[in-house]
Each structure stands twice: as structure tokens, then as C-alpha cells.
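WP5 quarterly update. Target: UDP-N-acetylmuramoylalanine--D-glutamate ligase. Source organism: Lacticaseibacillus suilingensis. Length: 457 aa.
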Amino acid sequence: MRVNTAYRNKKVLVLGLAKSGVNAAKLLHRLGALVTVNDKQKFDDNKEAQALLDEGITVITGSHPVELLDEGFELMVKNPGIPYSNPMVQRAEALDIPVITEPELAYSVSDSTWIGVTGSNGKTTTTTLIGLMLNEGEGAGHAYDAGNIGIPVSGVVQKATAADTIVAELSSFMLVGIQTLHPHIAVLTNIYEAHLDWHGSRENYVKAKMRITMNQTADDYFIMNWDLPEMHELAKQSQATIVPFSRQGAAGARATLTDGWLCFDGERIIEADALQIPGAHNIENALAAIAAAKLSGVANTAIVAVLSRFTGVKHRIQYVQTIAGRKFYNDSKATNVEASTVALSAFHQPIVLLAGGLDRHLPMDDLLPLIQAHVHAMITFGETAPLMETLAQQAGIPYQRTENVKTAVPLAFAQSNPGDVVLLSPAAASWDQYPNFEIRGDEFIAAVQALAESEEA
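C-alpha cells (predicted):
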């Protein structure tokens, strides 16, 4: 971390805690700022706020009092999830108080090289692959994954040196709040419809994504998905050197799928069949990661080693185990129909699908063609179980309702045959039964392990 005295004695409000807020407050406190933290959760139930108070940081909890902004603050560091329509944020802007997000704060004190990754889908997998490839290589420094992947960048920058690389997953929410953040390599995996309720329009959402390249120059690289025509126009907004990747043979791409091989600048690197992560979308993620690794000087042998053993990010079409010829995959992160369509398209084998969860009263019809094509049995649970069963009826496949993910696993095994895939891809959020998708996925993994033990007994 480089010395930055700009925050010394500066009055800063950190709005919203969670991991990013806690780490931002601690970093600012270390830099000598006069830090106040404001979080809506009540103090008695707010362990994060209690810990910060013990460190000498001013803490205000239980509400967001707009009048707090009249106390001479010079900067607001906003939790990325808090929208700009929030009265606190609007008041800050009315008072000309700069509003940034935690990655911008982290970048301002970082002396590491940055690789930034954004996109509607594939961010976490691509970020993880790039970090693994850089660390598999023989470079002098270490690569740290951070950002929206669940590791606050403001914590990582305090240990990362000038020889290191920070591979930051940057959500659109984070990117709206950057000013100087300047990745040497930026990656835009894709752009689809997402978070329009937060951004207000697709145009605003795309603008947020493109902020990843706004400070880049011709000495930097912008890796883009050339299979999406929109990218060709968006590339014109960047000053960086454009590095396209393509799974579908788009002209001009440098990272490509060619004759069954993943290639860079025409050089074969690894056969697509050697990847341990299934699906066309993961070929795209791998191509983006290969481009970033090659531009960083990583040898082919290191790239191949990573792609040959990487079985997926936890809860994202994650391979769990093979039991009696059935492969079990955990895709608990599939909290909507779009994510589950990706998962169902990823496999050529017959699928027993475990699905259901929070009912947001959204249509499920887009799943039907994929269920008809790939699924031969379904186990349902949660509030959307009736909706999933309607799809099963329309597809003409058997289904069975059960209590939860734990009880679904043995039922799915009973419905499966050797050579099948047993896939948890709920197509719904977890909150009707679980605090988050991670706990839901962990229960699935534990149930699969228990099944394996019972089969071995």
C-alpha cells in the first residue's frame, strides 16, 4: 500500500456496513481520517458496528438520519448496494459531497497492478480463473482476488505490494461510484438485462459497466466478448487496446474457440473437452481469462494446469461428487430463470433437476424448452414448487415434491440412472427457506456427501 495523506483529518461518512463498509472504515481510520459509520441495523444486533466502536470509530446505527450530512463531511463512501435514490446519498450530492464506493477508496492507496472484471454473467468465474492462472505462473508477485467476489478490496490493498496484482470483480453498483480507478487490463464478459430496477434503464446499466474502461489509455487492454454485436459499438468508447474473444468465430478475435481448441493469437492452448467446467458460457469465461493471463505474460503450461483442474466456483455449476455413476452439481447461485437456463444448457447428459425457492411471481416459461430437451425427472421444493411441477407436467416428465434441498438429494438419486447429472439449479432465490444461496448450496453439498457415505456403507 502506498502512502496517501489525502485522507488525514478528512471527515468521512461510511454509509452502510457489511464487509465492504467495515473494511472501508478500518482503512480510512488507519489513514487518519475522521470516520463516522452509519448503518440502519440497530446497535444491539450489529456486531460489525460494535467492533468498529471498540476501535475508536464513531458509529451511528438504527436509521439513516439525513441531518447527519450537515456536519461538515468531505466524503461519503457508500455501500454499493445502496441506490443513489437513497435520501442520504441525495443529500450528500446536494451538498457537493463526493460519493464513492469502496473499490475507488482502495484504488486510491494501492500501488499494485489492477485487472478489473465486470459483466452481467461470468464475473466470478473469470476473476477466479485469472487469479489462479497468474499465481500458477512464475511471476514475482502474488495475485489477489477481490471485490464483488466477496473479498473487500480495501482489506486486500493493505497487504498487496507493487509487485502484486489485484484481480477485482467489479459490479455495476461498484462502478457507478468510481472516479480514478484504472485497471491495466479490463474484462467485459457480456451484457444482458440485469439490475434495471436499480439503474433505472438499460442505458444506465450499460454506462455503469463501461466505466471500467473510462480511465484506460492506449497502453492498457480491454477484453470484450466479440460474439455480442453491441460490444463492437461499445469498444469505440474506450481508449484502450481492444482484445476481443469469441466462441463463435467472430472476425478479429484474439482469444478463440477454433476446431475444438481454446486459442490465443492462433496458438492452440487447451482442448475444450479438457475443461472441467461444463457449458458454452464457461468456454467464454475461459477465453476471457486466457486473454488476461496471456497479456500478463503467463505461460501456456500454467494456463493449461489451471483449466485442467478447475471444477468451478462454489455454488456456480460446481461439481461436487460422482456417486454410482451420477455426477452431482451445485448451482445454488441460480436464483432466477436466466441462470438456470445457462445451467441446463451446459450438459449433454440426462438431468435430474432439483428446483424451487422464493416465489417472486415471475414467469418460468423460458425453462420449458430446456426441461423438455435435457431433464428426465424433477424434484421440487419451496414456494415455486407448483410452478416447477407445471413445467414438468408440460414436459411429460415425472416429478416429486419434497421439503427442502436436504431431502431432495436422496429422492433425486432414486430417480437417476448411471451417466445422469443430478443438478441443483433452483431458478429462484433462497429466502423462503434459507438465509442465502450459499447456505442452500452448502446443505446440498452436505446431503450429497451423506448420500455417498450411505452408498459406501
